Structure formats: C-alpha cells, structure tokens
Amino acid sequence: MNKELIKELLNLDNVKLVAVSKKHSKEEIDEMARLGVKTFGENRVQEFLEKYDPSYSWHIIGHLQTNKVKYLIGKVDLIESVDSLKLAKEINKQAAKHDVIQNILVELHVSRSDLNKTGLDPKELPELLSQIAEMKNLNLKGLMCIASNTDDRKIIENEFDRMKAWFDTYSRMYPSMDTLSMGMSSDYPVAIEHGSNQIRVGTALFA
Ligand SMILES: *Cc1c(COP(=O)(O)O)cnc(C)c1O
User: Which of 16, 116, 200, 203 maximizes ligand 1 atoms within 8 Å of its Cβ, making it the mutation to test the pocket?
Assistant: First the structure.
C-alpha cells in the first residue's frame, strides 16, 4: 500500500479520491480505510456485494447490466457508469421501489480504442440527460469517462478537454451536476490539470 500517495491524493484541493478496490480483499480495504480513505469503487456487482460494508461509501464504476441493479440500491452512493436509457430507467424504477434517490453519473465513450467500448456515444448525451431529468428517483451528479490507454499525452488531453466542455455546458442546464469523474493511475495528474474533480485510482494506491 502506497501510504505516501494515499496521503497526497486525500489532501488534494477540490478533487475527491475514489480508491478502486476491485480485485483487492476486504482486509486491504479496511487497511486503506484506516489511512483515511472513505470511498471505494468496484466494477463488478457480485464482488462488490461480497465486500460491502455500510461504514464506507461505495461507487459502482463498471459496466452494469440492468438485471443487477436491484442488488445495488440502498448500498451504493454513486453509480458512475450509466450508459443507456434502458439502464437509467431501471435504476429509477428500483430506486422508486426502495423510496430512495439514486445518485448517478453518465459515462461517455471518448476513447479511440475499440477494445474499450463502454460508455454512451456523446452524440446521444443531450437526449439522455433530458430524459434523466424527468426521472424522479435519479439525481444526476455529473459525467464520467475512461480515457484512451496510450502514452500519447495529446490524445488523452483532448479527451479530457472534450469532457470538461460537455461538463461545463450541461452543468449550467442541470445544476445538480457537480462531479466530473476522470483520471486513473496512469493519467490522473493530466485529468486534474484538465478539470477533473474526482479521480478513480486503484493500482497506484494498492501497489
Ligand atoms: C479499474 C478501474 C479504475 C482504476 O484503474 P487503475 O489503473 O487501477 O488506477 C478506474 N476506473 C474504472 C472504470 C476502472 O474499471
């Protein structure tokens, strides 16, 4: 566990740290929590449920199937990976059933890689946001992306800049939007420079 880095990232001004704990044990999560980390990100529902502990805050960051949504409501503070109308509708429906308001981010597909196809086509963003705004049990908190996995800093910067521009535009229309989630172990410094206010870091923290 990289204590120095954990401390550094917890002390960033105006940037929230989500420790991505996928593939790490509950014991490791507890150890990190003792160092001051409060929010953990998991990408698979089954794995999340095995490690769930109500004393921490949890985000779901991976592609989510509609039939798994029902297991998350009431346990997850933020679903970061909403990438379709169908999924938004199901989260809204399950949240209504439990009488809760579910915080969500819309995940956008900005990377050039065809391997990493998760996220909504940005062309569809205005329409999806207007539909989400009508759903009473969803609270739209912002946008999320995974940048291209490349050493070419220009490509990554361009993707983060596009995200920031959409975030600025739509957070004026939808004032509940306050979160721009971008940046992982390999690119969080670039993400912060380009407007991120929430980073999702796994490997570098647990190393
Ligand atoms: C795994 C993962 C991360 C963290 O990646 P690291 O390279 O381990 O920091 C961030 N976001 C998502 C969506 C992930 O799946």
Answer: 200
